[in-house]
């Protein structure tokens, strides 16, 4: 009995750990895919989910989860269904303009759709991708 209890306790800690991170690393392939999708979808916005994992307080984003959908700039994020996979940690979307700051609608959806969110603005490149936390605060990331 004692052993069983301890095991459950550790599992619960591990679940919490899933959302605790001090550093974000985005894999180069994910960055490349974001730039490519933003260009292909222009002049519309594209949106995708980010798949990642937290290990040793490092959140590593390793894949885009992209679904085709009918774009409407004013409510793209709300129209998306949350994919059925456990590794979704946030979203990425493009702005067909020069600003990569989140809109009011973006901020509302950030808090519901994960813990890290990326916005890429024009001209689409790795240097115009900005990361935000679920409250819309800018966060740094590394590419690796
Ligand atoms: Zn936006």
Report on this structure:
With 144 residues, the chain is α/β, with parallel strands linked by helices. It has a single domain (2-143), classed as 3-Layer(aba) Sandwich (Cytidine Deaminase, domain 2), CATH 3.40.140. 28% of the residues lie in helices and 31% in strands. The protein is built from four helices and eight strands, in the order H-E-H-E-E-H-E-H-E-E-E-E. It has helices spanning 2-17, 28-41, 76-79, 104-110; strands spanning 23-26, 47-55, 58-66, 88-95, 116-121, 129-133, 138-139, 142-143. It has an eight-stranded mixed sheet. The longest helix has 16 residues, at 2-17. The protein is globular, with a radius of gyration of 16 Å. The chain starts with a helix and ends with a strand. Bound molecules: zinc ion. Zinc ion binds at residues 93, 95, 102-103, 106, 119.
How many strand segments? 8
Instruction: Quickly count the helices.
Output: 4
Could you tell me which ligands this complex binds, including any ions or cofactors?
Answer: zinc ion
- CATH class designation: Alpha Beta
> Separation of termini?
44 Å
Question: Secondary-structure element sequence?
Answer: HEHEEHEHEEEE
* Number of separate structural domains: 1
CATH superfamily: Cytidine Deaminase, domain 2
Fraction of residues in H or I helices: 25-40%
**Poorly predicted ranges (pLDDT <50, ≥5 residues)?**
1-14
């Amino acid at each position: 009995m004692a052993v069983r209890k301890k095991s459950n306790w550790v599992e619960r800690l591990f679940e919490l750990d899933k959302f605790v991170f001090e550093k974000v690393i985005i894999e180069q392939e994910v960055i490349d895919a974001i730039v490519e999708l933003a260009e292909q979808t222009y002049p519309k916005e594209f949106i995708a989910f980010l798949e990642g994992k937290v290990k040793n307080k490092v959140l590593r984003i390793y894949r885009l989860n992209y679904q085709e959908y009918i774009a409407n700039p004013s409510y793209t994020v709300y129209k998306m269904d949350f994919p059925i996979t456990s590794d979704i940690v946030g979203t990425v979307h493009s702005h067909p303009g020069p600003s990569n700051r989140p809109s009011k609608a973006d901020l509302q959806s950030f808090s519901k759709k994960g813990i890290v969110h990326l916005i890429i603005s024009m001209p689409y490149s790795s240097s115009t991708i900005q990361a935000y936390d679920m409250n819309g605060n800018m966060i740094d990331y590394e590419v690796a």
